[in-house]
Amino acid sequence: MTAYAQQPPARVLGIDPGLTRCGLGVVEGVPGRPPKLVAVGVVRTDAAADIALRLLAIEQEIERWLDEHQPDTVAVERVFSQHNVRTVMGTAQAGAVAIVCAARRGLPVALHTPSEVKAAVTGNGRADKDQVTLMVSRLLRLTEAPRPADAADALALAICHLWRVPAIQARAAGAQRARVAGGTA
């Protein structure tokens, strides 16, 4: 049995930010073991509504999820360059709302790029949405694929973070040791 398997399960809220559809997914588990689905859903806002009201609706739903599911960490997709500036802006705004909600509660926030998430769940950083959805369904032993793709992407983010925790912790510990050795602690 590895040291990771002896840790208590971690609960991660994955957020695939978007203004029209913001995916939310909670998984629980330990690195090296199949994760368990806790909840999955999507916050939808009307594209014709005022931006402030849309962001407020997203904030309120994320807060509700944080209250209901009590995650240990929040994993948010890092905004990635897209051709449509309006889409990038909406994604960045929704992502910022998610980060603020987590920060308000003192929860750690991790940002993962789409290619990191795809590589973590499929083994291929260039996997398409169907491949990600299929692997999320298999990893969580779901009988039906999470829909829409934003929901599957949120679960993929949570799984990615759950599985990357040992590497993230090892890097942080190594950086700390280097600072101490260099006298900058």
From TrEMBL:
Mg(2+) 1 binds at D16, D150. Its cofactor is Mg(2+). Gene3D superfamilies: Ribonuclease H-like superfamily/Ribonuclease H. Pfam families: RuvC (PF02075). One of its GO terms (molecular function) is magnesium ion binding. Mg(2+) 2 binds at E77. The keyword Lyase does not apply. Keywords: Cytoplasm, DNA damage, DNA recombination, DNA repair, DNA-binding, Endonuclease, Hydrolase, Magnesium, Metal-binding, Nuclease. It is found in: Cytoplasm. Homodimer which binds Holliday junction (HJ) DNA. The HJ becomes 2-fold symmetrical on binding to RuvC with unstacked arms; it has a different conformation from HJ DNA in complex with RuvA. In the full resolvosome a probable DNA-RuvA(4)-RuvB(12)-RuvC(2) complex forms which resolves the HJ. Belongs to the RuvC family. This is Crossover junction endodeoxyribonuclease RuvC. It comes from Trebonia kvetii. The gene is ruvC.
